[in-house]
Amino acid sequence: MNIVLKNELTFHNTNFSYMEMAGQIWLTSSEVGEALGYSDDKAIHRLYRKHADEFTVNMTGVVKVTTPGGVQDSRVFSLRGAHLMGMFSRTTVAKEFRRWVLDILDREVAHSPIVTNGAKQFTDDELQSLCWLWKNSVRMVSHIADIEPLLRVAEHRLAPAYSSMPREYSRNINTARRLLERETMHIHADLCTSDNWRVLNELRIPELH
């Protein structure tokens, strides 16, 4: 995989000499740790190892970099990966760092829209509608789970179907949630969000089981 050194990005006193791989911006773990306010590299690596199972190959990886001491392995994070590290961090600047990463993502998405065969696949309005469809599906599964015990006690003919639906539907809902979370990473939402993007506060939560 080729690595191209690009211009710097700056967050407070941290200057990211970011790299480009497969058309994405990647940041070194040491600079992500510095930006988040950790005093040494060990802290950021401990934080990553604690949550390593939540990262995909599109969010982090290990590359070879040339240092004064020779060629060494270095962990890097894509912007999505850096944002997730900011979500796990509890430092005083973590919240501001997350917003900064989202601002960079906004710029990247503006220049690189989701495309399929040269055409944009979804607009933000369409993504918003899909997010609400996801929420409606979650509510539907919850209602099915509430009704199923009553159907079972009544020995209703639909009881077996209602018993299996929550498990089957939850798998698809979780898959859709991960896709929507990925495609809406560039959109900021928090507890103060009052427009229809408030749905993201529910979408960006642990999965259904």
Q: What CATH first level of the largest domain would be assigned?
A: Alpha Beta
Which stretches are low in confidence, meaning pLDDT under 50 for 5 or more residues running? 1-7, 112-119
Read across the widest sheet, the strand sequence of neighbours is 1-2-3-5-4
User: Rough shape?
Assistant: elongated
Radius of gyration: 21 Å
Number of helices: 7
Query: Can you give the mean pLDDT?
Result: 81
The CATH architecture of the largest domain would be Roll
Q: Structural class of the helices, strands and pairings? A: alpha+beta
Write down the secondary-structure element order.
EEEHHEEHHEEHHH
Helix share, percent = 40-55%
Largest beta sheet, briefly? 5 strands, antiparallel
Q: CATH topology of the largest domain, which one?
A: Mlu1-box Binding Protein, DNA-binding Domain
General description of the model:
With 209 residues, the protein is an alpha+beta fold. The protein has two domains: 4-112, Mlu1-box Binding Protein, DNA-binding Domain (Roll); 119-203. Helix content is 50%, strand content 20%. The chain is built from seven helices and seven strands, in the order βββααββααββααα. It has helices at 29-35, 41-50, 79-88, 94-111, 124-153, 159-183, 200-203; strands at 4-11, 14-21, 24-28, 60-67, 70-78, 115-116, 119-120. The chain has a five-stranded antiparallel beta sheet with strand order 1-2-3-5-4. The longest helix has 30 residues, at 124-153. The protein is elongated and about 75 Å long. Residues 1-7 and 112-119 have low confidence and may be disordered.
